[in-house]
């Protein structure tokens, strides 16, 4: 028998017991699905984190107000009006930092003509664009002079531009934020989810001074909600934290026996946490895949042993008309490998469907690569050979006389 005939016989044997073959494949299908998804999700999570870090910027820290205390009761974090524009300016002079950018954020009604929506609006300084790697697709950033003048200007994301100005160019047009007109001077490049949960394409950015003067009223006119700072490099993050803490404790006149009225968060820690979560998910899927493949392999070995017993007389007839032991070995081994390869194909199809579902329901873009498919079929072939070898050897060592006598 040549290789083509062996494969034809393998498919005939599988077709003769379709239900049994399908149940035998099930473990392989689940295992291959898990292995392929594990690789795809792991790679997609790493790509997502790298992309978000690139959008967010590198070596960043967020300084936010601490908690307010009243009669010994500690309120929620961020309630103490402790950070000011002057604090942010002072941080810009620290030698361990590249820059610091304060921000104010609120939800407001945005309208253009009859079109309106509720959207987050951020009041920022011009340093924020460089720190967060926000690039302009059309138009310009607002300048330091615009900040000082509290100019009513806005830089918007692509989705906002498409929503409100789908028929015209957004540059030079006006949007109303809580009924107050702001002129669009720039459109951001790119879109997609960010680490803070927002969408780059839905950003509405205005000068922080304009936000304070026109939108976000407060009894503390110089206070800000947070300050984003960038260390010189990843090695100086700890030094930057210590420098910021020392500067703010000195500016806020905090005694050594008092707690800080601010908080410093390292965004690199968020990225590491995300990487650990994705690695844990990949490991979990890998463990499920490994267990399923082993169970599936044992199932294949069991079914092949049953098949050898059922087809003992057939083996004797083949040997009697000239089949060699290695022909019998190759026939049964090929059947085991074919079962695994067909199961692997169904596993890849299921993994592709799972990847599409994850992509639709999460910010991850999960894609099944050609490398993943090759590895999946390699796993399937190995399982077929490893667990199919013993039944195949057993079949090849049967004596023709005993086989022909078998009832």
What can you see in these coordinates?
With 407 residues, the chain is an alpha+beta fold. 55% of the residues lie in helices and 19% in strands. It contains 13 helices and 12 strands. The strands form 2 sheets. Strands 4-5-10-7-9-8 form a 6-stranded mixed barrel. A hairpin with a 2-residue loop joins strand 4 and strand 5. Helix 2 runs antiparallel to helix 9 and helix 9 runs antiparallel to helix 11. The chain is elongated and about 100 Å long.
Rg, Å, rounded: 33 Å
Helix content: 40-55%
**Apparent shape:** elongated
Please report which band the strand proportion falls in: under 5%, 5-15%, 15-25%, 25-35%, 35-45% or over 45%: 15-25%
β-strand number: 12
Question: What's the mean pLDDT score?
Answer: 79
In the sheet with the most strands, the strands line up as 4-5-10-7-9-8
Look at the helices and sheets and give the structural class.
alpha+beta
State the major sheet: 6 strands, mixed, barrel
* Span between termini: 26 Å
Task: Describe the SSE topology.
Elements: H1 3-16, H2 18-56, E1 60-65, E2 67-70, E3 73-77, H3 85-91, E4 97-112, E5 115-124, H4 127-131, E6 136-139, H5 144-148, E7 153-156, H6 158-164, E8 174-177, E9 180-188, E10 204-207, H7 208-215, E11 226-231, H8 237-251, E12 262-266, H9 267-310, H10 312-320, H11 325-361, H12 370-396, H13 400-405
Parallel strand pairs: 5-10, 7-9
Antiparallel strand pairs: 1-11, 1-12, 2-3, 4-5, 4-8, 4-11, 6-9, 7-10, 8-9
């Amino acid at each position: 028998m040549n290789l083509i005939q062996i494969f034809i016989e393998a498919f005939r044997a599988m077709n003769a017991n379709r239900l049994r073959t399908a149940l035998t494949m099930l473990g392989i299908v689940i295992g291959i699905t898990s292995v392929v998804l594990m690789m795809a999700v792991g790679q997609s999570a790493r790509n997502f984190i790298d992309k978000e870090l690139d959008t967010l910027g590198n070596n960043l820290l967020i300084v936010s107000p601490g908690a307010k205390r009243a009669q010994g009761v500690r309120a929620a974090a961020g309630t103490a009006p402790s950070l000011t524009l002057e604090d942010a300016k002072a941080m810009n002079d620290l030698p361990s930092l590249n820059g610091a950018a304060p921000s104010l954020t609120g939800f407001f009604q945005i309208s253009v003509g009859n079109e309106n929506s509720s959207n987050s609006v951020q009041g920022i300084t011009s340093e924020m664009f460089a720190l967060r790697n926000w690039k302009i697709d059309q138009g310009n950033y607002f300048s330091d002079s615009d900040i000082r003048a509290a100019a009513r200007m806005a830089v918007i994301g692509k989705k906002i531009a498409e929503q409100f100005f789908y028929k015209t160019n957004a540059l030079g047009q006006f949007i109303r934020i809580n009924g107050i007109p702001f002129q669009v001077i720039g459109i951001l490049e790119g879109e997609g989810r960010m680490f803070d949960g927002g969408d780059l394409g839905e950003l509405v950015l205005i000068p922080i001074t304009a936000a304070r003067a026109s939108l976000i009223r407060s009894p503390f006119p110089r206070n800000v909600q947070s300050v984003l700072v960038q260390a010189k490099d990843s090695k100086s993050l700890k030094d930057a934290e210590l420098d910021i803490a020392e500067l703010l404790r000195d500016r806020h006149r905090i005694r050594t026996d008092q707690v800080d009225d601010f908080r410093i968060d390292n965004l690199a820690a968020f990225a590491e946490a995300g990487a650990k979560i994705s690695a844990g998910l990949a490991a979990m899927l890998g463990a499920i895949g490994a267990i399923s493949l082993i169970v599936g392999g044992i199932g294949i070995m069991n079914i092949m042993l049953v098949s050898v017993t059922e087809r003992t007389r057939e083996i004797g007839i083949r040997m009697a008309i000239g089949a060699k032991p290695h022909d019998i070995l190759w026939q049964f081994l090929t059947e085991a490998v074919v079962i695994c390869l067909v199961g692997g194909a169904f596993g890849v199809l299921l993994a592709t469907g799972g990847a599409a579902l994850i992509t639709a329901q999460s910010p991850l873009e999960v894609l099944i690569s050609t490398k993943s498919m090759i590895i999946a079929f390699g796993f399937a072939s190995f399982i077929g050979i490893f667990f199919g070898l013993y039944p195949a050897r057993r079949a090849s060592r049967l004596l023709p006389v005993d086989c022909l006598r078998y009832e």
